[in-house]
């Protein structure tokens, strides 16, 4: 039975298939978090006299059982149930009868979905933070291991000034640290409890929303119920904007690694187990994993644009359009985690060809240094610049 189903209600089969889409599959990611939210909601219902202590205990036990089933891949959501919220309530009703039917008191599926999504977001952001920290550590180890290796620095894709392997690696480590600051600020901003906002216009009966806020570990109550509804998609897009910064760094890192590991440069060497071969050319050694990371940054970017496009131009309040923001959000988080994990392995196993780096350190790289040396003796910069330029052209 659907949460919204009424007597003599029958949805056209094709319409149902179209509107449900693959939400019943996507929502498998939400089962545990909806159970956590429902657990807190049930405790609030006991305080409000809807559940007796005995009924709440039974609800808590069954919600824990559903979580175990989900963790073992044994909880199923039927197509006709539409989402995890219906599947969970159906499970509670089947097991507990009238008690299970009470669980939806004082909430709408709208605030129920948002609460599960917020809990999922907090959980997954913490994982992204952990994976980013691991990559930062890998980059810093890589820099320390190769701290004496010099290499050219490039502007306009041409050799420009002296650089080094640690300068390269630590540039990304520092950038990722800034990305983490951005992610933490977004995490803090979105750490608001929407449960109790119902369908976007509050409830005709007063409840203490601070109870569930504390139980669920939210920093604060999201007070305005209409803003709760309007923040769906908005909060996800903010989180994805932070993820996009991480992916931009991984994109640039990938491009550098791919360039510097070519035969033409030969600065870096990827291990054989990280590469594939060509079906035609036996000499080929293709850095597929790094190329996929580079491509996935664009995939995450497109997911961000997808969500922004979905929520644009919608009137205030809930609209079914929001349903389509869930999948791109989940996919973007998973892609970001995967790419961080793989890049950490890449950096941890990347080898530097110090001999090739040394050979690439041609005299022209020190042109700016020579100019500045002349200025130390009182020569105007522009005169010194032209003198060195003439010397280089003459050479």
Structural class: mainly alpha
Please summarize the sheet with the most strands: 2 strands, antiparallel
Which residues sit in consecutive blocks of at least 5 with pLDDT less than 50?
Answer: none
Taking Cα atoms only, what radius of gyration do you get, to the nearest Å? 28 Å
* Total domain modules: 3
Which whole number gives the mean pLDDT?
93
Query: What is the overall silhouette?
Result: elongated
The total of beta strands comes to 6
Query: Could you give me the name of the CATH homologous superfamily of the largest domain?
Result: Fumarase/aspartase (Central domain)
Secondary structure elements and their pairing?
Layout: H1 13-20, H2 23-26, H3 31-47, H4 53-71, H5 84-96, H6 98-101, H7 109-145, E1 150-155, E2 158-164, H8 165-189, E3 192-193, H9 209-216, E4 220-221, H10 225-230, H11 234-260, E5 268-269, H12 288-311, H13 326-349, E6 351-352, H14 354-359, H15 367-375, H16 381-394
Parallel strand pairs: 3-4
Antiparallel strand pairs: 1-2, 5-6
Helix pairs in contact: 3-4, 3-7, 3-9, 4-5, 7-8, 7-13, 8-11, 11-12, 11-13, 12-13, 15-16
